[in-house]
Amino acid sequence: xxxxxxxxxxxxxxxxxxxxxxxxxxxxxxxxxxxxxxxxxxxxxxxxxxxxxxxxxxxxxxxxxxxxxxxxxxxxxxxxxxxxxxxxxxxxxxxxxxxxxxxxxxxxxxxxxxxxxxxxxxxxxxxxxxxxxxxxxxxxxxxxxxxxxxxxxxxxxxxxxxxxxxxxxxxxxxxxxxxxxxxxxx
Length: 186
Fold this sequence. Notes:
By secondary structure, the protein is an alpha+beta fold.
């Protein structure tokens, strides 16, 4: 991990721990999870929000006002709204994506869940996703939440990552290994 990335991760972890502990004490973990989903979607969809978080040109006051207005509009719970305001004041909004990731990991651990990153050639149907989640849960022994993405370059099959384990059943991977085997023969 590069030094700036590890610094960002450390900053995000400290804020995430504080937010998580407060939400746990006030028994608002479910609301926190909903707010994180909304915030994550906003970060993914809005280039302006990403620019607001990382631009050195925008003053602390402007960042604070903008993020407070966004938090109000989204209906984020007070602990998350206040944390975002503090992060703007301290010029730490650039770690917002890592904060969301850290909080999601803490919430999953609290619920005994594991997230599986699944890449498929075509979008999984709800039935396929549920069946995969159940199969993984049986093997791992924990509830599994599926985070699915589509990559048509796989041609077919799946690439599943759970923690440090990866299962690659994609046709593209099988073709690549076949190609390597043919190179060794000829």
